[in-house]
Design goal:
DNA-binding; mainly alpha; 139 residues; homodimer; two-stranded antiparallel sheet; Arc Repressor Mutant, subunit A
Chain lengths: 139, 139
DNA sequence: CCTTTTGTAACCCAACGAGTTACATTTTAG
DNA sequence: CTAAAATGTAACTCGTTGGGTTACAAAAGG
C-alpha cells in the first residue's frame, strides 16, 4: 500500500487535468507541475487510460482529458488502477510446514490485512478528484 | 504501509512466543518456524524489545519472552514498533512551486493519507497476539 | 511533409530488503 | 575459571525495484 509515489503522482495528474476544465493537457505540462520527467508521467498516464479514467490522444494538438467529470472519479478508482494486485507484503519465504504457527500464519494474516486494506479503500472512496481539487485551490 | 515483510514476521514471532506460554524461545527456534536466518529474527527482536513488547536475555538458557500477556499486545503495538515514521510514500521530487496544484498537492494528500492510515490503525488495534494465536490454532 | 504528442522499450543508477558471516558480550553450567 | 549458548550488531553481498533518461515508432493535425 503506497510503497511508491505512483498513487500520489496519479492523483496529482488527475487534479491537474481537472483544473483546466476544457482543454487537453500534455504530459510535458504535467511533468512540469509534478517536477519529473514526462516519460514518468506517460507511464502512469497509460495505466489511467487503460483504467478508463482518462482519454489520451496522440498527435499534434493531442493530450489527455478526464474520461468523465472530476466528481465522478474517486481516489478508490485511482487506487484500483495503480496499486494493481499485491497491496501489502507478507512473508518472503514460505514458513515452516511442520510448525503449527508457521503452517497457519499466512492465511490468518491475509485475512487481517485484507480487512485493513478494505478500511483504506473505504476512506479513499469518500474523496473525488473534484474534492481534492477544491481543497488544493482553497489553500 | 507493509511494504516489506517485517510486520508479518514480527507478528509471526510474537505468536510463536505466545504459544510456548512459559519457556523462553530462542531466535534459532523462531527462525526455523519463519524459515529464515536467525539474524533476521534478532534484528526484529531488537526493535520489539526496545518497544517493550518482549524481554530478551543473553547467555546460555537465554531467549525471549513476552513482556506482558498476549491478550495485552495488539497488532497496533506491533505496527508502531515496526513501521517507524514514514508509513506511506508521496512525491519523490518536490512539485512545482509556481503551479497552484503543485504547490498545494502535498499537504492535501498528506491529510488524506493520514486519515487512511488512521483507519488501518483502528483495525489493527482490534486484534491482539492472543486473538491471532487462537485463529492460528483453530485452523 | 513537418511538427507535435502519445506509447513503449531499453538502459542506468540509487535505495532497500533480506540473507549471510563474523564477532563482541552476556550468562549459565560444570 | 572455562566452555558453551545465547543475544546484539556490524559489515558485506545480492537481487529487486523505483525513478530518471534517451531513443524511437506511431498517430494526427496544419
Amino acid at each position: 500500500m503506497f510503497s511508491n509515489s505512483q498513487f500520489a503522482v496519479a492523483v496529482h495528474m488527475l487534479v491537474f487535468i481537472a483544473r483546466g476544465q476544457f482543454d487537453q493537457v500534455t504530459s510535458e505540462e504535467m511533468a512540469e507541475s509534478v517536477n519529473t520527467n514526462p516519460v514518468v508521467i506517460r507511464r502512469i498516464l497509460c495505466r489511467l487510460a487503460r483504467g478508463n479514467l482518462v482519454i489520451s490522444q496522440p498527435g499534434a494538438l493531442g493530450g489527455t482529458k478526464l474520461s468523465r467529470p472530476a466528481d465522478q472519479i474517486t481516489l478508490l478508482d485511482v487506487y484500483h488502477v495503480i496499486e494493481g494486485c499485491e497491496a501489502y507484503c507478507l512473508h518472503k519465504s514460505q514458513p515452516s510446514e511442520t510448525c503449527v504457527v508457521g503452517r497457519n500464519m499466512l492465511p490468518v494474516l491475509e485475512g487481517i490485512m485484507q480487512e485493513a486494506e478494505a478500511a483504506v479503500k473505504e476512506k479513499l472512496s469518500r474523496y473525488t478528484i473534484e474534492d481534492v481539487l477544491r481543497q488544493v485551490l482553497k489553500l
